[in-house]
Amino acid sequence: MSGTATTYHVLGVPLRTGSLYPGSENDAQAYRDARLVERLRAAGCAVVDEGDVAVPSYLPHHAIPPIRSWPGPRIVWDCMSERLVPTLRQPGHVPLLIGCDCSIVMGTAQALAAAGAGEVHVLYVDGDFDDAAPDAGRCQSAAALAVWLLTNGRPFWTGPPLPPSQVTVVGWSIPSQSQQPGMRSVSLADVRRFGAREAAGRALHGIPASASILVHLDIDVFRKADVPAAYFPHAEGLGLTEGSELLRPLLSDPRVRVVEVSEYASLRDGDQSSVRALVDLLAFGLAA
Q: Which of 17, 50, 109, 115 is deepest in the core (most CB within 10 A)?
């Protein structure tokens, strides 16, 4: 994308089938009510609002192990991939996904591969590692398995799975459950120790110049006091100022091909303070 002007394509993803509880069915509308598109344009970004991804109404909802509501999440990943591929084949066109849960990273990684994006690297900014492995003895949400699925996957999605070395989990305070060899990480403690900008540099270090980067942001990476409308809020997490300093170099990297913001629950945000803070972060991070 170097040397090519960037156009952001805002897409809502009305998905909760990959999550555990209701609360993220139509959250993209809250971003629009908070004037996300207008704020990005005021920050110098070229933006197109493309509405919401069409999600089937027949998606199952159940608590049968190992993955809750399966195969609902995979159906949505395939819908997402089909919708994104034409955009991703155009240089300088970057989908900006809002209103999704963490499991959507499978659909976007799949879309990048299908679009011929080359070597894909995921910067997974999250308060959790989200790498629990499927367990036939208990039902877990696809969102809680997202990183494991991303790096393993079969038979749960078409992939191709990414090598663990091409995934970096950033900002976590709840550690890995599967301890996959080669997985890269920059913890919340690292962000505090090195400073947000240095931590961002460490996350980007070693990613090839020719790579395509997918930035995944779960808003529970922020502390509950600052962003209480996270789907699973954490008492400990990034403050908004250090979050802005961390995200700016990640989002402005010219190799970024997809940005997705997940796990916002508008039902918990009656005064819209959380979504306004998220819009501020995106406007600052994506500013031209």
A: 109
